[in-house]
Amino acid sequence: MNRLLLILTVALQYVSALQLTRRALPGAAAAATAIGTQNALAAAKPVLVLGANGGTGLECVKYLQKKGRPCVAATRTGEFVGDASKLVTVAKGDVTDAASLASLITEQTGAVIFAASASRQADAKKTSNAKAVDNVGLVNCAKLCIEKSVPRLVVVSSGGVSKPSSAVYIFLNLAANGIMDAKIAGEDAVRKLYAAPGLAEKNVGYTVVRPGGLLRDPGLGVSAVELNQGDTKSGRINRADVAAICIESLDSKAAFDTTFECYYADTAKGLDDVMKSNAAAVGAGVKTTPTETSTGRERRGDTWPKLFEGLERDRVA
Q: Which of 4, 71, 72, 153 could make an SS bond with 64 (beta carbons 3.0 to 4.6 A apart)?
């Protein structure tokens, strides 16, 4: 009995000391502690991957499995083409159906990866509607994430999406029935929704990832990747590395409420030249000579935290 009382007394003293320490922390440090705690709690909850049968969505599920993180692989059919494991729960979910989304996004969702896109369909003009998926579907997803206080929504968008006069934008928009119009409208709406007062303080935020031309080869790793902000450069990148960026950004304070482009540094070109460069490299195997033009906002790193370091948060007018 005396031993039990001693253990209880020591435990109570420890808790009291911890509470006093937290009260003594200055505001910024206390907030950082709270964010760290919330991220740790969120990591124990499953990550919802919307569009899990798509190229990037499937790679996101694989990367989560590799990291030992539980996830929900949501597909329109309820069938998953990837390898199942005890970490993966397969669910039926249609981003164009608000009720379907509401059944998937709950207080028990640790994060959401929006990898669904009309461009993933075999024939986007006939089988899917870009506005319904990449704009309205994304907005409904963001609203639910905010309502349920999901710590992070990661949106897989596209390089060149904010430059309607660029060749990249014009080509993809025509090829996929207004896909770029829908994507930028969805992006803008997400940024506006998350600008609401109090959300950042609650550690409820987003990350918009704009990959360059997507390839299906194995990932090259963090040291090959360059990030940029301002949508002035792009290149090529394997889906596996886009997935890694999405998952690694989930717990990154540096990537909180940010929008950035990603591509391999040795494929970097200005938007006016990137389509020609990508076509030559993929079609004829012509090696890309990266542009020497610098925006001053490029980011490189030999670890994921270093890669995200220095990203500028979005400013919403």
A: 71
DSSP helix/strand/coil, 136: helix
Distance CA(124)–CA(126), nearest Å, equals 6
Give the chain's largest Cα–Cα span. Answer: 80
Asked if residues 191 and 132 have their Cβ atoms less than 8 Å apart, the reply is no
Threshold 0.70, pTM exceeds: yes
Name the stretches of the chain with pLDDT < 70: 1-43, 119-128, 275-288, 290-292
Helical axes 167-175 vs 179-194, angle rounded to 10°: 110
Token pair recorded at residue 103: 């059944």
Cβ atoms 96, 118 nearer than 8 A: no
Residue type, 228: N
| Spatial CA neighbour of 129 closest among 169, 182, 77 | 182
pLDDT digits over 9-63, tens only? 323 332 333 333 333 334 444 444 445 555 555 568 999 999 999 999 999 999 9
Which distant-in-sequence residues (6+ apart) come within 8 Å of 203 by Cβ? 34, 35, 38, 39, 151, 256
Helix ranges (H only) for the chain are 2-24, 27-43, 55-66, 98-104, 124-127, 130, 138-147, 167-175, 179-194, 239-249, 271-284, 304-308
At 290, give phi and psi (nearest 5°).
-60, 150
Phi-psi region of 290 (alpha: psi -120 to 50; beta: other; left: phi over 0): beta
Among 90, 95, 77, CA closest to 143: 95
The model's pLDDT over 242-276, given as tens digits with 9 standing for 90+, comes to 999 999 999 999 999 999 999 999 999 988 887 66
- Sorted by where each starts, the structural domains of the chain and their CATH numbers stand as 30-308 (3.40.50.720)
Q: What is the 3-class SS of 182-196, one letter each residue? A: HHHHHHHHHHHHHCC
